[in-house]
Each structure stands twice: as structure tokens, then as C-alpha cells.
Predict the structure.
Amino acid sequence: MTHAATLAAAGLRAADLAGGSLAVHSPIDGAHLAQVAETDPAQMGQVIARAQDAFRLWREVPAPRRGELVRLLGEELRAAKAELGALVTLEVGKITSEGLGEVQEMIDICDFAVGLSRQLYGLTIASERPGHRMAETWHPIGPVGVISAFNFPVAVWSWNAALALVCGNPVIWKPSEKTPLTAMATQKIMERALARFGDAPEGLCQLVVGGPQIGAVLVDSPLVPVLSATGSTRMGSIVGPRVMARWGRPILELGGNNAMIVAPSADLDMAVRAIVFGAVGTAGQRCTSLRRLIVHHSIREDLVTRLTRAYASLPIGDPRATTTLIGPLIDHAARDRMLGQLERARAEGGKVYGGRAVAAGVPQGGAYVEPALVEMPAQTACVREETFAPILYVMGYDRLEEAIALQNDVPQGLSSCIFTLDLREAETFLSAAGSDCGIANVNIGPSGAEIGGAFGGEKETGGGRESGSDAWKGYMRRQTSTVNYSTRLPLAQGVRFDL
Ligand code: UN1
């Protein structure tokens, strides 16, 4: 399929793709895909005002009816799965199966949110006073700003949007400047769902395209009470304090530096498969990608031999080919950062396998790399940083406590895992004294989480939670109500104040 055919199949018209100031290139071959129109920062005030108008109407629509909109979105996504998945592949460079997987993740969260729309449960609380009833209720909170990253250009919006919508909130989405096309195609899918729904307020789901200037308006506006931002820790360290300074609620999903501990009892065949998918899947560009391997000394040599063998046979190339497992990095700057980081690793005592730029057998113009495996003498400075590329650092350990300490001794706290068949080790890893991450798995890699769980992490990962479990509470306003149905006015805590 030509690039033009992929764009057209995803519903993008010539007028969407030309005449604007934002150039979009495909990481597959560097081809210029479009010149997209950017939102004028001066228009952002109107965008936010429209969202506020929509909020006043949408908050009064019963939640199960709001869920109907998300159900229709899920239907439209099912119908458009192949085309949107192919566009993710074209704009981000994900292999075909992962492009489709991303759209499936959107469908899954829609299904989840539809059920949730009938389960926005509050509490009743025992009052200490006679003739009183206490309750906790959840209310819509207002427009939700979503700033998403290039690597999950549409799924992360859907985690936020599906929840925000059933919770009664409008959504304003600013995608990465690198991936406006998948966002525009998704917006069209959303518009089809809105048209079928019929009477949703105008301005309920808006898309703004452009750089940090328009993101900054969302970050600073007190009329956007929740701001969900996914991206680098550097970005989050700017966004978080600014949202809080105007008493907004940030939901931050930032860097990860995810580790796997491989214990002596591990099923090594399974571990190898999990390691390879975790470290090189999505060309190492997931926030959940596996970046550190902490292996028991007794099996280290065997595991490294198996991994170098597996790495040597990985098909690198055009992500549209069904046999490819590693597509390109997002751009040449990402490749330069990877190669620079490998130089640093060498200087810090690392022994690097692979990690070279690839030019043969791949489309010209893309930034293709061999994934790198780096044996490190210790957890040095470069290992403690997140590099958004397929670099896997390998370190050894003797005692489990030592492995857990190494796993936790990084600034990030997103995802983690252990491969072991020893129940004591597995439970220790999951215990209060174990992994300090938001996600901790046993005999599963750190990436590829299902939508049903709350997604996010601690420390520099930002502390936000999106997606499943009770993450919806982050998109609502909690209200505690005490109702007095007695004929007296007793005060709590036994306080007497008789007039
Ligand atoms: C991300 O990389 O920002 O757990 C999100 C995973 C995916 C989501 C990753 N479900 O790897």
C-alpha cells in the first residue's frame, strides 16, 4: 500500500494534509506525509470556553447515557481498526501487529468505560449522629486536557477520553507534534460516534494540533481542572508544578526504567521470550520497555548467550512486512541519542553487543538500529537514565535483597518484574519490601499491560494512574454529604454550643 493510500483509508483528505505549518514525516522512510494546520495559540481561549459550555450540558446527561457515546466510539474503532492501525504503523513506525494492538487497546478501554458508566459507585458512611446519613458521591469535574506522546499516539488519549467522557467531562487533546495524523484520524472516528449519538454538546471532544505553546495554555488554564500528560520526566517536571500552582490536578505518566530480575529457578525459555519482547518490542520505545536485566550470577552467562543468539536473528526492517519484529526509531535524533548513550555505557565499563545503525535491507531514510545488549559491571549513571531506544543493560546479583535494591535504586518507578518459580521470591518481590514500582509482575515482562489495571508509576514516573481499576476517580470531584433527617442538631465530636 502506498503512503497516500494508507492516509486516505484512514479517512484523511487532501485538505487535511496540505497547507499547514507542521511537517509530518514517516519514520519508515523519512517520506514527507503532510503539512498539517496548527491551532493558533490565540484560539485556545475559545477552545477552552467551548469545552466549558459542553461541560455544563454533558454533566447533566445520565452517566449510562454518556456510556452510550463511548460504546459507539468502540464500535467505530472496531470498524476502523485495520485502517487506524496501519496509520499508526506509518506515522510511528510500529510493526503491523503492534499498530493493531494499539487500536485494540482503545477498543478495550471503551468496553471497560461503558461498564463503568453504570458503576460510578459512591459510598454510604455510618454517621456518629442519630438521624443522620452520610454519603460520598462522585461528580463530573470539568474539561480534561490530554497531552499525549508519540509512542502511543492514540491509545493514551483513549484511556483518558473514555473515562473522562463517562465521568461527565469534555476532553481537549493535544497530541505529540510528531503524530498529528493518527490523532486527526481518531478525531474523525470520534466524530462518527458523536453523529450517531445525536445530541452530544458541541465542543465535547476537541483536538488541538501544535507545539508546547498550545500545550502551555492547557497547563495554565484554571478552566481545565484535570491535565493528563504523558511523556518525559523533564516535561512532567515543568507541567506538574504549573498545574498545581493554579490548583489543577495533574495526572502524570512519565519516564520508566523498568527492570526484570531473573532468579536461578526461572523458566529461561519463557524469560528469553519475555526479555526480547520487553526490550526490543516497539523498538524499545514504550515507557514500559525493559531496560535493565538483573540476573543471578549462576545463570548470567547462559542467559546472555541465549539472548545474544536471539538478538542476532531478529528481523529488522519495514514495519509493514509481516515478518519484521523491529521497525525504525521515531527519528534520526532518537538514533543519535541511542548511539551516544552506548558510547557512555562503554566509557562506564559496559560491553556492548549489537547497537549499530542498520542501513542494509531496510527502507532508506528511516532510523533503523540493531537492538543493544550491554553487560555492565554495576548500575552506573547511564543505566539509571531512561533512553527511549532498544538498549538493555545486564547486571548480576547474588542475593534477592541485593537484586531488589538494584531494581529500586533508580529515579523512575513505572514497571518491574521477576522471573522465578520460587513462591517465596515471587511474594517477596510483590511485598511492601519488594518492588517500589506502580506495576510489578511475576513471570511476565514489564510491558504490554492490560487496560483493566490502573496504569502508572511512582517517583519520577509522576504518580498518576490512568486506565482501569479506580483510575476513574482521578477524573471526578468527590463530594461528602451529611443529611440530617432528625429534629435535633447534634454536633459532631460531642461539641456543645447551646444558644
Ligand atoms: C506507554 O508506553 O506510554 O503496558 C504506554 C504497555 C502498554 C502501554 C504503554 N499497554 O506497554
About this structure: The chain has a mean pLDDT of 98.
